[in-house]
């Protein structure tokens, strides 16, 4: 099965939180409201600085994707 790179998630135990799940390496769950990341994969690489930069980029991409996705929902609501 092919999965999207990012998924939106919520949970009734955390009604105020919104999560983004990154399904590709390095996999992680981002709590958008708390701005916290739970890594599901160990970050591998020889250069810690490079790995930190890559991790920062993918988390920033997750925030941007989430903002874009939520804007689409707002547009749909405005159309109704």
TrEMBL record:
It comes from the Bacteria. This is Uncharacterized protein. It comes from Kaistella montana.
